[in-house]
Amino acid sequence: MNIRSSFEALDKQFTAYGGLIGGGITRLLYSDEWQQAVHALKETLESAGFDATFDDIGNLTGRLEGSKYPDEKIVSGSHIDTVVEGGHLDGQYGILAAVTAMKALKEEHGQPLRSLEVLALAEEEGSRFPFAFWGSKNYFNLVDKSEVEEIADAEGVRFEDAMRDSGFDYRKQDQNHDDIKAFVEVHIEQGKVLETENKAIGVVNGIVGQKRYTVTLKGEANHAGTTPMGLRKDAVVGFSEIASKLTQRAREIGDPLVLTFGRVDPVPNTVNVAPGEIVFSIDTRHIDPDALNQFADEITETIKSVSESEGLEYDIDLWMDEAPVLMDKGLVDR
What we know:
- Keywords: Hydrolase.
- GO terms for molecular function: hydrolase activity, acting on carbon-nitrogen (but not peptide) bonds, in linear amidines.
- This is Allantoate amidohydrolase.
- The protein folds into two domains: 3-202, Aminopeptidase, CATH 3.40.630; 209-322, Alpha-Beta Plaits (2-Layer Sandwich).
- The chain contains nine helices and 14 strands.
- The protein has helices at 3-15, 32-47, 92-109, 134-139, 159-165, 193-196, 235-253, 289-310, 329-333; strands spanning 51-54, 60-64, 69-79, 114-121, 180-184, 206-207, 209-218, 222-223, 258-260, 264-267, 273-274, 277-286, 313-322, 325-326.
- α3 links the parallel β3 and β4.
- α1 packs antiparallel against α3 (92-109) and α7 runs antiparallel to α8 (289-310).
- The longest helix is centred in the last third of the chain and has 22 residues, at 289-310.
- The protein is elongated and about 75 Å long.
- The two termini are 27 Å apart.
């Protein structure tokens, strides 16, 4: 088995599920492209000799039973969803690398001593709905349906409608994965550290904490030509000041704090009206929980003070709040 050519063939196949003409890929949770990918992956696993099964919400597991320690498993995989116009290797690489490696090990050595499992998590990104880690949180029984029952995507499609239309539903009973001996995820570098240092591989010591917000500012929509600057309550002006102040503050604090305004939607979004409303996202991350929480306080205070000075109403929805997690030292040191 040629591992490189085998992986490249799989990567080419799965990049087509959501692949874009100009490059990149969009494969959002429970979308048609997502459904095509997960069902194709199930067929791929089964044809390679894996026992492939979906759980209730759409996580897919491919299992090679262990001959000596079947009740102990080593798991490898990643998430099968993507961000909008994302790179084709984000998430997909971890899944297909696991498939390729486990298939090669089986062909060369036969049945494994411990059970091996490929795990394709249904969702991680939070790109379609304002909820992230739906896959892993269900895998470890860390989410309740009440957290997603009322949410919808940007087109107004309700979460549970999209899920059920895809043939899946809420978790009917808790899962037990106490038999996991190790979980390893192969992932592309999404920054430039390894590339800059000309290193082929690195080992992650920890996963940063992350907070995501949806912020709404409301003022007054006014005519662009007849409303004096001093009489405006321009929501975009408020956003611009908030973004500028927080970006400057993040630069002062320095690495490893990061801050991103990834989505900005003014209303109305037209050339000749001063916007009366704007909805925008904030994503901030840090490995130190205290530093992250302290910056979160600064985010809230900045939004509040700028809104008051510009005569705007504001709403802050902190819809994702994940603490940092250190990786297992025993595995890292290996």
